[in-house]
C-alpha cells in the first residue's frame, strides 16, 4: 500500500472501532438497567472510574471490553488480585505507557498512579519508591494485533531494588504485595468506596472499622461491602439523597424505574456527551470528579432534555424512540385522582418525600386536567416530577 491507502485503512479501522465501542457502551448500559445485574454493574462503574482508562488513547474496543469484563470478574472479589490483574491488562499497559517501559529507561506513569490513585493516595510514598517501582514493571507489554498481555523478559530490569524500605529483586507483583502491607492501602480504598456509595468526608472511626475488616479478610471486597451496606450510617440522613446521580446512574436508574429498555447506541452517544460522562472515555487518569461536578447550567439542561424525552415530551423523544409503559406505572385510580398520581409517581421516582408546598403545587396543576387523565397529561406530570431538584439525588 502507498501512504494514502495506509492512512485510509487506519481511518476505516478507527471508525469501525468507534462504532463497536458505541455498541459496547449500549450493552453495558443495558446491564446497568437490568434489575438482576444493577448492583454488580454499579460496582463495575466504580472500578471503571477508579482505574480510569480511555479508549481515545488505547484505540481498541476489544481491549476496553476486556478491561470492563475484568472489573465485572473482580467487582466483589479480591482487591489485591484485581490490582495485579490490572497491571497486566492490555488497555492499562497502553494507557499508562508500560508499553514503552524498558530496562535502563523505565516509564514512571504506571508506578506513580499505582500508588497515588489505585492503592495508597498522595503522601504515602517517595519519589525513590516511584523510580524503583517503575523498574519492577519494565518489560510489561501488549501484543496490540492480538490484544493480549506479553512479558518481555529481555526488557525487564531484574536488578536489586529498594522499595518502601525493603530490598530485593522485585517484579511487579512483589511491588503490589508490599503496597498491600501499608496501613494506608486499606483505608484509602475503603474511604473511596464509602464516598462513592454513601457520602463525602466519612467519619474516621467508620473508615477504620471497614479497613480493619478489609485487612482481616486478606483484602476480599465482599466483607467490606457487607459491613458497609449493613451500617446504620449508610441509611442515615447524611447518606440518603445527599449525592447527585452520575449520568450513568441517572440513565440506568430512570430507565429501570420506568421499566424502559436502554436507549440505542446511536442515541446514547449524544446523551452521554451532553450529560458529561462518556463511558470508556474518562477525562483524565483521575476519572470523573463526581457529585456536585455533575451539575452545571449546561448539563442540567441536558438532564431535563433526557427526562423530558423519556416522558415523551420534546423533540429529543424522537431520538430516544422509547415508549414508557404507562400502564405498568400508573393505575386507574391514579389517573382519576390528582393526589394519587402525584404521590404515586413521586414515590416511584424520588429518594425523599415531596415537601408539602411542592406536592400541593403539583396536585393543583394536575387538577386542571380532565379525568380520567389522558396519556399526554400523565406524561406531562411525569416530566414535571423528573425536573424537580430532588430527582437528581440518590
Please tell me about this protein's structure.
The structure is a single chain. The chain has helices at 3-33, 38-50, 55-58, 61-73, 79-87, 90-95, 109-119, 127-136, 172-179, 183-197, 204-216, 221-230, 247-257, 265-275, 297-310, 316-320, 326-329, 332-336, 338-349, 356-366, 375-386; strands at 140-143, 148-151, 161-163, 166-168. With 394 residues, it is mainly alpha-helical. Among the domains are: 78-240, no CATH class; 326-392, no CATH class. The strands form 2 sheets. A two-stranded antiparallel sheet has the order 1-2. A two-stranded antiparallel ribbon has the order 3-4. Helix 1 (3-33) crosses helix 14 (265-275) and helix 15 (297-310) packs antiparallel against helix 21.
Write the layout of secondary structure elements.
Blueprint (H helix, E strand, L loop, with lengths): L2 H31 L4 H13 L4 H4 L2 H13 L5 H9 L2 H6 L13 H11 L7 H10 L3 E4 L4 E4 L9 E3 L2 E3 L3 H8 L3 H15 L6 H13 L4 H10 L16 H11 L7 H11 L21 H14 L5 H5 L5 H4 L2 H5 L1 H12 L6 H11 L8 H12 L8
Antiparallel strand pairs: 1-2, 3-4
Helix pairs in contact: 1-2, 1-4, 1-13, 1-14, 5-9, 7-8, 10-11, 11-12, 13-15, 15-21, 19-20, 19-21
Q: Order of strands across the widest beta sheet? A: 1-2
Rg from Cα? 24 Å
The rounded distance between the terminal residues' Cα atoms is 55 Å
Which secondary-structure class do the elements indicate?
mainly alpha
**SS field, number of helical segments:** 21
Overall body shape: globular
Q: Secondary-structure element sequence? A: HHHHHHHHEEEEHHHHHHHHHHHHH
Round the mean pLDDT to the nearest integer and report it: 95
Low-confidence stretches are none
- Percent range of helical residues: 55-70%
- Tell me the number of strands: 4
The percent range for strand residues is under 5%
Q: Which sheet architecture does the biggest sheet show?
A: 2 strands, antiparallel
Amino acid at each position: 500500500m502507498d501512504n494514502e491507502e495506509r492512512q485510509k485503512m487506519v481511518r476505516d479501522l478507527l471508525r469501525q472501532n468507534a462504532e463497536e465501542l458505541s455498541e459496547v457502551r449500549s450493552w453495558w448500559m443495558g446491564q446497568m438497567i437490568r434489575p438482576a445485574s444493577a448492583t454488580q454493574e454499579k460496582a463495575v462503574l466504580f472500578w471503571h472510574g477508579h482505574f480510569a482508562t480511555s479508549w481515545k488513547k488505547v484505540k481498541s474496543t476489544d481491549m476496553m471490553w476486556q478491561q470492563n469484563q475484568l472489573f465485572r470478574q473482580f467487582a466483589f472479589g479480591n482487591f489485591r488480585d484485581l490490582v495485579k490483574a490490572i497491571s497486566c491488562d492490555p488497555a492499562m499497559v497502553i494507557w499508562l505507557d508500560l508499553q514503552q517501559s524498558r530496562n535502563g529507561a523505565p516509564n514512571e506513569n504506571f508506578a506513580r498512579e499505582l500508588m497515588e490513585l489505585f492503592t495508597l493516595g498522595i503522601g504515602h510514598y517517595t519519589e525513590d519508591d516511584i523510580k524503583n517501582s517503575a523498574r519492577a514493571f519494565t518489560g510489561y507489554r501488549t501484543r496490540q494485533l492480538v490484544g493480549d498481555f506479553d512479558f518481555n523478559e529481555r526488557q525487564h530490569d531484574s536488578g536489586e531494588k529498594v522499595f518502601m524500605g525493603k530490598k530485593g529483586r522485585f517484579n511487579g507483583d512483589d511491588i503490589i504485595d508490599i503496597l498491600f502491607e501499608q496501613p494506608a492501602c486499606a483505608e484509602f480504598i475503603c474511604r473511596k468506596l464509602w464516598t462513592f456509595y454513601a457520602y463525602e468526608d466519612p467519619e474516621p472511626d467508620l473508615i477504620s472499622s471497614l479497613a480493619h475488616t478489609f485487612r482481616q479478610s486478606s483484602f476480599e471486597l465482599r466483607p467490606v461491602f457487607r459491613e458497609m451496606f449493613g451500617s446504620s450510617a449508610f441509611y442515615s440522613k447524611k447518606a440518603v439523597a445527599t449525592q447527585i446521580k452520575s449520568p450513568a446512574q441517572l440513565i440506568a436508574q430512570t430507565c429501570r424505574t420506568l421499566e424502559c429498555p436502554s436507549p440505542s447506541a446511536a442515541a446514547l452517544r449524544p446523551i452521554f456527551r451532553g450529560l458529561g460522562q462518556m463511558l470508556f472515555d474518562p477525562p483524565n487518569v483521575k476519572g470523573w470528579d463526581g457529585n456536585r461536578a455533575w451539575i452545571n447550567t449546561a448539563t442540567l439542561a441536558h438532564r431535563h432534555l433526557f427526562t423530558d424525552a423519556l416522558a415523551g415530551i420534546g423533540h429529543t423523544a424522537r431520538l430516544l424512540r422509547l415508549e414508557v409503559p404507562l400502564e405498568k406505572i400508573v393505575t386507574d385510580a391514579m389517573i382519576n385522582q390528582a393526589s394519587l398520581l402525584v404521590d404515586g409517581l413521586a414515590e416511584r421516582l424520588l429518594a425523599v418525600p415531596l415537601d408539602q408546598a411542592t406536592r400541593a403545587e403539583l396536585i393543583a396543576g394536575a387538577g386542571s386536567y380532565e379525568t380520567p387523565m389522558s396519556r399526554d397529561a400523565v406524561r406531562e406530570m411525569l416530566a414535571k416530577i423528573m425536573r424537580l431538584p430532588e430527582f437528581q439525588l440518590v
